[in-house]
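Record 1 of the preview.
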Amino acid sequence: MAYTVKNFKSKKAIREAIASGEKVEVFQPNGDLFGVKLPTNGEIALEGPHYPEPHRWYGTGKLVNGVLVSIK
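->
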């Protein structure tokens, strides 16, 4: 599971940011410790908001050149 760099509180907020042209980037917490690398292009699993808040949304996002272009 990955997070967006900006701590969005909902998927709706992410969709609005993408629609407005905002560059939405993602990261894998502790990815370096476990050897997990996010793809530059393709689908990824997302969740939020960031820990330690309880996760209230989960989704599948599409990355193009390392930038999130859509989320379901």
